[in-house]
Design a protein that fits this description.
The structure is a homodimer. Chain A has 13 helices and 12 strands. By secondary structure, the first copy, chain A, is of the alpha/beta class. Chain A is globular, with a radius of gyration of 20 Å. Chains A and B meet through helix 2, strand 6, helix 7, strand 12 and helix 13 of A and helix 2, strand 6, helix 7, strand 12 and helix 13 of B.
């Protein structure tokens, strides 16, 4: 049995969902994978909690606990035996902070990193990757690349040995939901309002509807899977804010469906990535991926196209994908 | 760098495709995974070949080589440093032979097993699994469970930590092709003949059209993923030989599509597996999986439904899935 020390930073929706799932799955982790998951500390804006194994989960999730202010993350990472830093602070894809500092602090002190936060990776993928590699540490981010929809896993594990020559994905639930509802006859504003009312879209939906969330994900997937070092300036980004019901109807009349796709294409040994509104027909395996669902297709040399779709698009799905990454770092073998 | 010794048994379509892909991917395996793949011997009915690294691949594939008769597999497995036995002889799901003996010989002598042959696993899954576990050896069979469509990988790796509560798959290309063509208006006989003419269906299609191939696959997937010990007698099997164009039309009129599904369901902590002709509507992610394509949906507790579809349904896809399993046994880490 291996003890896996966890320090969780960020206790919003995803951080809480991860904590709850890790507690629910404590016995499963022990029995099935021989992993004893131990929470050493949780950090959030108002402070830190430690000795979490003696806490009541429901109290903690209800915020009935006093957070200790003033304790520094790096001092905890220094003191405890290294395990996994789980990063769930909000994504800032321009500066990467505060996540970027957290990730560097963790790697510097010999901790593996599992993150749901796209920001640090979008801002400094090469630097973080290099540091993790030099120190033989894991830097895993299923939670930042469509979460419960397996994207990186499928590419790296299920397609091992195949050359990936193209990627195409519906990677953002909000935009896909809006596009589906526009196909049902709504206009953009109505569809966005409905998505917000249902908790699918955020109150400020700009990162989603302008394509930046999709751009971040296809960027990270490309860099991890193909070893490229793309940064955001290399991505041609299109959003859905300007589309009219007319365009949606035109596509429908031709039997096509409008999707906002994150795409990687290979043209003469050069890769290109972009986010583009695309009308696809029913020969495309992503045709049926509608509503808040996501999906991704990998085109390969030896295995043709492999498409994955589904996976819960909510904090619980994201939390489960963080636990998955932890298990896959520590499990002793795959047979 | 690790040297990976391979002994390949069975040099039919899949064995040849695997050999060709492994040769094509020699440099990739070295550079990307640090694996030096070395063929120590190939066995087929007429004899054995050794010292394969000095052979011309095209000659070998063209059968311009004299096979040495009379050499026993076990003597080669005994003599060479243990690596992976790759088993590609024809599936016999009643007796399991000759594959079953090959697998036992390999495991007894400390060789990992990667197999495209369903027979031995259908006949004695618990025995083989136990032996592999006791000896800390891999027993991998992506090639026997839909090959280039990743089924086991996704369940075991991408859904790690989630509880799988149901599985539903289109696992046989021949039956799915026939059903799709019947939706286009053909009758069963016509559609079968077309599938045979296109090389999708075999000249004796009974294992496919009577549902036994699907049954074998769902059986193996269930046993591996859920740790059950189902055998063929536990599976209720239905085929497609008795369906009339009328039934297909009726389904179509209701907006549904007929699929032959391998299903695992959980009813009060009890698992049940069956192969059943099912009319599914477009809310089912397998609805759009048509022609010779395959797909599988896993229902989980924390990640909702995850569906994979595609993957090349031919010997090359199967060969690529065998290479994938070998890489995933030996690769040093996943980060």
């Amino acid at each position: 049995m291996k003890v896996v020390n966890i320090v969780l930073v960020g206790f919003g929706k995803v951080g809480k969902a991860f904590f709850r799932i890790a507690c629910e799955k404590r016995d499963l982790c022990l029995q099935q994978y021989g992993l004893d998951i131990q929470f050493k500390a949780i950090f959030e804006e108002s402070g830190m909690l430690s000795s979490l194994n003696h806490l009541n989960i429901e109290d903690l999730l209800a915020n009935n606990i006093d957070w200790r202010p003033g304790i520094r993350l790096d001092s905890v990472l220094e003191k405890e035996r290294a395990g996994v830093l789980v990063e769930c602070t909000p994504s800032n894809i321009k500066k990467g902070e505060p996540g970027l500092s957290h990730l560097h602090q963790a790697l510097d002190r010999g901790w593996h990193v599992v993150t749901a936060n796209k920001g640090p990776l979008v801002v400094d993928f090469p630097g973080l990757k290099r540091k993790a590699k030099e120190k033989h540490l894991a830097l895993k981010f299923s939670g930042a690349t469509a979460a419960a929809l397996p994207t990186l896993d499928v590419a790296l594990f299920s397609l091992a040995g195949a050359e990936i020559t193209g990627i195409e994905g519906i990677l953002n639930g909000t935009t896909n939901y809006i596009l589906t509802r526009m196909e049902d006859g709504m206009d953009y504003r109505e569809a966005l309002r409905e998505a917000q009312a249902k908790g699918i879209a955020e109150s400020d939906p700009s990162l989603d509807v302008e394509g930046w969330d999709t751009a971040s994900k296809i960027l990270l997937i490309a860099n991890e899977v193909l070893g490229t070092e793309f940064s955001m300036k290399d991505v041609k980004v299109e959003g859905i804010t300007n589309i009219s019901p007319h365009i949606v109807n035109q596509a429908r009349k031709k039997g096509k469906s409008l999707k906002l796709l994150g795409k990687l294409t290979k043209i003469k040994d050069e890769f290109k990535i972009e986010v583009a509104l695309s009308a696809i027909d029913d020969s495309n395996p992503l045709f049926g991926v509608d509503g808040a669902n996501k999906g991704i297709t990998f085109t390969t040399d030896t295995m043709d196209k492999v498409t994955v779709s589904g996976g819960k698009s909510d904090p619980r799905g994201a939390g489960a994908s963080l636990l998955k990454d932890i298990i896959n770092i520590y499990r002793s073998s795959f047979f």
